[in-house]
Fold this sequence. Notes:
single chain, five-stranded parallel β-sheet, four-stranded parallel β-sheet, 25 strands, globular
Amino acid sequence: xxxxxxxxxxxxxxxxxxxxxxxxxxxxxxxxxxxxxxxxxxxxxxxxxxxxxxxxxxxxxxxxxxxxxxxxxxxxxxxxxxxxxxxxxxxxxxxxxxxxxxxxxxxxxxxxxxxxxxxxxxxxxxxxxxxxxxxxxxxxxxxxxxxxxxxxxxxxxxxxxxxxxxxxxxxxxxxxxxxxxxxxxxxxxxxxxxxxxxxxxxxxxxxxxxxxxxxxxxxxxxxxxxxxxxxxxxxxxxxxxxxxxxxxxxxxxxxxxxxxxxxxxxxxxxxxxxxxxxxxxxxxxxxxxxxxxxxxxxxxxxxxxxxxxxxxxxxxxxxxxxxxxxxxxxxxxxxxxxxxxxxxxxxxxxxxxxxxxxxxxxxxxxxxxxxxxxxxxxxxxxxxxxx
Length: 387
């Protein structure tokens, strides 16, 4: 019997540990070829997968969110799952140390722990300790009750998440007083002018007050009132802070991180720093950045492509072969060639290499409750795998 070129007589299958169960980690853990070739363990603080691309929708429609974007991990036969937060990487010991004092030993390690907002915003990420599907569903319900009760909603951050959340709120609660503060002169500053204009006009038409090229020192969940850096007064209500993205890399050795806290990786998506492990460590997704060349933008699609690349690299390493082909970024900056920003469940704006599309196509692809993109992700990361 062989495991992709490796004879069973060679001994036990190698141990592959995947830290982080987001888009990249879940894709790796569900790779049936990798599961056949190695003993794979997925480590994550949560017991469930969350497709947080649609978290702003779940915040205003928690029943839909529970049904559509949070689910139990469906992993191939033999893939283990370990629930726990990582405290440190023990390179010389080839082990992942968890905060409960236990350890997960590896031959090959992949780190894909993603990123979060410094504010601790619970719309986009579960709050600490919210590690079950039921608890996350209850958290979405609580956010919805907060939104309905708030006399005014302050959203800080005019990137894709902030814009999508603002649109969901005003579509679900017509007439709700909403203020969006963004530090740049325009919303969605990473997109082209037409896309920015579509989003701005959509929000203004629904009564959203835009305060651009300004900042406000608001704590997520605070009640206000607030005053911006330029002296603009914002009435009391509820604040949702969607700025200050930081990688979840606090457990990594400092020599592996750049000034932004990202793990520096080579063109092979291996950690540049010497960690003392037997085999190179891979890092991908939002927590990592390639050095010396353009990296992918922090998008779920790019993380999925990186996961495919790393799976191939691991399979070759396990079979004793060398993987010499460098990873080619699929969505490099500064402006994404492809991005869809939803504007509620019925509209959106889509930037592509051939132009900007509004309403029907972005609605079909991402905005609709049963969109094509959500269906694709559910097939890839939710649908049970059969032997």
